[in-house]
Amino acid sequence: MSATKRGLLVLCGLILFGTVFCGLFPFVILPNLGLGAGLPAITLPAEVLVKNIIPGFNLTNGITSMLLVDIILITMALAVGKTLRKQSADTYTPKGMLMNVIDMLVEFWTNEASKTLDTKKVSLVLPLVLTVFLFILTANIVKLLPGTETIGITACAEPGISGYPLADMSAPIKMLYVNGLDFKSRAGTKASEEDMIACEHSYPLLRPPSATEESSGIAEAGNPNLFNIIPFFRPLATDINMPLALAIIVFVSVEYWGIKELGGTKYLNKFINLQALGNLRKNPMGIMDFVVGIFELITEFIRIVSLTFRLLASILAGGILLLVTTYLITLIVPLVFFGLEIAIGLIQAYVFALLTIIYAGMAMGHHE
Amino acid sequence: MDAVGLKAIGAGLVMIGAIGPGIGIGLIGLGATLGIARNPQAGGAIQSVAILLSVLTEAISIYCLLIGLVITFIL
User: At a CB cut-off of 8 Å and minimum separation 6, what does A107 contact?
Assistant: First the structure.
């Protein structure tokens, strides 16, 4: 068989594969077997799980994710500390998987930091760098565990978000009924205001926690009410508070180290260059030094924005990509994107920590 | 000319901003390959610099994506 004929066969095979796996499989075959995938409800702010758990404070699913990551990291730190205290510093050799991994990480980051800083500054900077790296890395790995954005509490679908009727109203663990071709059940239709009011009217316990207390309106008879899931856990870096908090901590630490190393007035002179202004008669081009200093001051603050949004948008885009590919082809193909997500999580953690080292080096460096 | 339609057009147009980082990362690749071709011994150092700069440049295109997401889901 000639090459063109083989190519034609491959092309027909690809078209058939696309039709079956992207068209029939997720929309016809799997829902009829009861295994459909619902369209994700993508929200940027973290969704509220329990309203007013302490008065004035809502428990959101960002907080539960952060507590999970914290528990993992603190357990790891306690285990490492206990092992280290039993051995003396001179004869220390790492044994076991956890100690070897921690040893490898610390050695890697010490070498990275030694490329731009000297040893005294390395031991000053290294705790923050390793904390940032491990925190972001753990958060990005926890996001890939099964159940992260799929298990949650049922709530009435808010307007504009696709809702699904419940498969079995009285079961303690409810599953959504996802057959999009069963038009009477209205699975997958976008909920409107009347739907939410009718659902809250019928099921006041399943009101989404962000709804107000009064709900007025008519209950629609005959139409099944639409629900959606508010997940228990959520990728931690998609909640804007986490990258913002890390970026502000890095900013404050870098400024503090700069001021401690150079002294307050000399550090401030890097940005508001009073000596260049004073020497204008002797050196009129000093006005450029002053303007560059002002720009460096602005750059210091823009760093918070860029650090936050780099991490936030990468993880958010990756999370949406995973949810949408799971919606399109539910089996096997999203595995490729899981690999991409692991790589992106690792790279974003590496870049955040490396930028911390670079900013600290720049702040502590003496102007020549 | 309703709001949903205009929001969709806006969210689509915002990704034109991803042209810049595309060209930028291509230029980083050009510099990296030419550098390694001239001096294969510096391959390791050039590689780490290239990866770091690619991630920093890619962040700009991700800012555009973030604006698109904000327009679609929040506004």
Answer: none
In chain A, residues 302-341 whose CB comes closer than 8 Å to chain B: 306, 309-310, 312-314, 316-317, 320
The Cα of A319 is separated from the nearest Cα of chain B by a number of Å equal to 12
Do residues B11 and B68 touch, judged by C-beta distance below 8 A? yes
Token pair listed for A289: 């030094």
Which residues in chain A have their CB less than 8 angstroms from residue B70's CB?
Answer: 44
Q: Are A364 and A262 in contact (CB under 8 A)?
A: yes
What is the token pair recorded at A226? Answer: 């639409």
Is-contact B10 B71, C-beta < 8 A? yes
ipTM reported for the complex surpasses 0.95: no
Q: B47: closest CA among B56, B36, B60, B58?
A: B36
A343–chain B nearest CA distance, Å: 12
| SS3 of residue A333 by DSSP | coil
Q: What is the DSSP string of B32-60?
A: HHHHHHH-GGGHHHHHHHHHHHHHHHHHH
Instruction: Grade residue A242 by pLDDT with cuts at 50, 70 and 90.
Output: very high
Chain A closest-CA separation from residue B28 CA (Å): 17
Greatest distance between any 2 Cα atoms in chain B: 60
pTM of the model: 0.79
- Say yes or no for a CB contact (<8 Å) between B70 and A44: yes
Contacts with A, B 4-33, CB within 8 Å: none
Q: Does A347 touch chain B (CB under 8 A)?
A: yes
Rounded mean pLDDT, A252-275: 88
* Tens digits of residue pLDDT in A295-346: 888 888 888 988 999 999 899 888 888 887 877 776 677 888 888 999 999 9
Query: Is some CB atom of chain B closer than 8 A to the CB atom of A343?
Result: no
Smallest Cα–Cα separation from A315: which of A82, A42, A75?
A42
